[in-house]
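Review form for a predicted model. The reviewer records the input and the model, then writes brief findings.
Reviewer: anonymous (R2)
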Amino acid sequence: MIVFMVHKLVMRHNNETSWRIVENAFLNICFIIYEFKRIIIYFVDKVKERKMVKSKRLLGMLVVFLLVSGSLFAQERVYRVGDVGPAGGIIYFDKGFSQDGWRYLEVAPAGAEFTAEWGGRRLDVPGTSAAMGSGKRNTQLIVDMLNSKGEKERAAQLCAGLDINGFKDWFLPSIDELNHLYLNRDRIGGFQNARYWSSTQHNRNAAKTVVFSVEYNGFVIILPGTISDNNKFDNRRVRPVRSF
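Model under review:
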């Protein structure tokens, strides 16, 4: 009966994407413990002294049982690539396990896209990385440097300032994270025929982009999926992402 109550309470909130299942289960378990504690205390007050020890033991066993049962039902949801994520975007990368505080990458809905410059001329941001999982740190490095130079409305700053469905942890993807966006572009949808910024710097004058459509540069054809270096002061498309 107790297990059923915990299960029912957890499942009742399971479809609300803005709630984490683990948090809901914890609150529900605490509520149930509180209610049973009230009942047992009332029982203890009405029974003889010799039964008080048994009642306290029962309470302890009940608490342990509820916590163990809750841990069984309070499992993290498993997402697949293409699923709608907690923030209303699309899951486009699954690392397969949780490490360094994240397992999944979620791309923002198409309506959150925008065009912006990466930064001003000769804005050097040492320490950015190309690797998966580095976009969040890259973005913070870029934002700190932009703020110190008095620059505003740049790609990384706009990503960091987003609030989508109550989620405020968006960032400009690293070049590897952006490349995974390109590889899953058909499943995600909403991309334009343009170049998209990454948070990976090439040098003080340029940052890396991914080309999402065929480009013609004189006699040179640049194919979709090409990773290219771009002047930081050019306006390019931006699709924010988040990790969790």
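Findings: Confidence is low (pLDDT under 50) at residues 1-34, 68-74.
Further findings: Helices lie at 2-12, 21-46, 52-73, 135-148, 155-160, 175-183, 185-188.
Recommendation: see findings above.
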